[in-house]
Design a protein that fits this description.
264 residues; alpha+beta; Beta Polymerase, domain 2; two-stranded antiparallel sheet; flat
């Protein structure tokens, strides 16, 4: 990850001055995006109130918002080999302001996405569905870019806001992946990609289990256990799951493992 100190040390005096001017322009634009963010947040609050009144159940467990720091935006431009200009930022960086919505269950993600596509006070520009089609490393989430018109005292501006929707299990995976990346782990290495992908599949199975528990739907214990063991064998070959409530050594490694007879 390119640090601010390293980046600035590579620039001459003229570039540093231009970068300072770009930061001033960015601060103004980010403030406009934050206004759009507050309007979209109000729409989400109204959606939550409507769900509580009509269904007595809130599909949204929690949500949080953020605005990208200038350093992060500059790094993204450099990584994409884009010009360091405010016009480039406005054209190519559409997630300056964002809201992340966390649903309790995976199927609630679809319901939230459908609700946000109803006629609203913002226009949907783009939807990327990484739940139906996860990224190669296992990342799952739905990303929406919406455009919101904001009226100021003298003019009207249209700003983008990103909305991410994911389940609690998806958010758990993404939080760990983000931590590993920013603490300097080589998450791009094949061994990391394989482990992250398998862990994402395990958490997706957990998502399915919680939905089955919520709906009181019987599940195929044998099939589920076989699936989980196949996944575990990739990242933790010394462990396996069976159905009995005692510790039993793995036949190959002699490692004690927990067994359970309870219905999953």
């Amino acid at each position: 990850m390119l640090t601010e100190e390293t980046f600035l040390s590579l620039l001459g005096e003229d570039w540093r001055r231009e970068l300072s001017e770009l930061e001033d322009a960015y601060d103004d634009y980010a403030a406009d995006c934050e206004c759009g963010l507050r309007h979209v947040e109000t729409c989400i609050e109204d959606f939550i109130s409507e769900m509580n009144r009509s269904d007595g159940y809130n599909y949204i467990d929690t949500y949080r918002e953020r605005t990208k720091e200038f350093d992060s935006v500059v790094e993204k431009l450099i990584r994409r080999n884009l010009p360091l200009t405010i016009e480039s930022i406005k054209s190519h960086i559409r997630d300056i302001a964002g809201i992340r919505i966390i649903a309790r269950y995976r199927d609630d993600v679809d319901k939230i996405v459908q609700a946000l596509q109803r006629p609203n006070s913002f226009v949907i520009e783009e939807i990327k569905d990484y739940v139906s089609s996860p990224k190669p490393n296992g990342y799952r989430s739905v990303h929406m870019i919406v455009k919101k018109q904001i009226w100021f005292s003298q003019t009207m501006k249209e700003v983008p806001v990103e909305i991410q929707i994911r389940s609690m299990a998806m958010d758990l995976w993404a939080s760990h992946e983000h931590y590993l990346y920013y603490k300097g782990s080589d998450v791009g290495a094949p061994r990391y990609q394989s482990r992250l992908s398998v862990t994402a599949s395990l958490l997706d199975s957990v998502d399915s289990l919680f939905i089955a528990a919520r709906d009181d739907v019987p599940t195929n214990d044998k099939e589920l256990i076989e699936t989980l063991n196949r996944l575990l064998n990739v990242v933790a070959p010394d462990y396996h799951i069976t159905r009995r409530h005692k510790m039993k050594p793995n036949k190959t490694t002699k490692t004690p493992v927990a067994e359970t007879t309870e219905t999953i």
